[in-house]
Design brief:
This protein is α+β, with helices and mostly antiparallel strands. It is built from four helices and nine strands; from the N terminus they run H-E-E-E-E-H-E-E-E-H-E-E-H.
Length: 187
């Protein structure tokens, strides 16, 4: 596992940033939506492009029609082949796999596994690029493959505080704390 992490770290250094973008798919049209698990509903079809794991996740809410599902499948196949142009970014051009999560079939083992992997996407540490696009902070272990004995904490220590002042946080830590606070309510 540690070798996998080391290999990914080396590849990340050469490949540049990895982005995650969520797109609601309505009748084949792709509309960016804010990043967060809370933006998945029983009535929605949502594609999530995850460059970090090179996976495209497709969420089917339990109330979606078969026509909506087929249109979405055609749409994500296009994204999987050529990516998605988002402003100055081209997101998902290196996506290798497609994982479908159908809310109406969450008892199915394969569906449960895909849903668990998808949930882990929201547990990473991110940097917001704008309202919709997030950049994965490199060098973190994917949650499912953390080696035993290494504790990864999303909290940081603060210096002792005086009664009338705010806790002091190092500048490089403040962005991480902000990202964690932003996403804790969305998972």
């Amino acid at each position: 596992m540690i070798n996998e992490f080391a290999e990914r770290k080396v590849k990340d250094a050469y490949n540049g940033p990895s982005y995650v973008l969520m797109l609601q798919i309505v009748r084949g049209e792709r509309v960016p939506i804010p990043f967060g698990r809370t933006n998945l509903s029983s009535d929605s079809v949502v594609a999530t492009i995850d460059e970090y794991s090179k996976t495209l996740y497709l969420w089917f809410g339990k109330n979606c029609s078969e026509v909506d599902k087929r249109l979405a499948l055609n749409t994500v196949e296009s994204i999987r082949k050529i990516g998605y142009k988002y402003g100055q970014f081209h997101v998902g051009h290196s996506v290798k796999s497609l994982k479908i999560i159908d809310e109406s079939k969450l008892n199915d083992a394969e569906n449960q596994n895909s849903n668990q992997e998808f949930t882990e996407v929201f547990n990473r540490i991110f940097k917001m690029k704008d309202k919709y696009l997030v950049e994965v902070i490199k060098g973190q272990f994917p949650p499912a493959s953390q080696p035993v004995g290494i504790e990864v904490s999303k909290t940081t220590e603060t210096k002792p505080q005086k009664t009338d002042s705010k806790p002091e946080v190092a500048p490089e830590q403040s962005a991480t704390l902000l990202n964690i606070a932003t996403f804790q309510g969305q998972t």
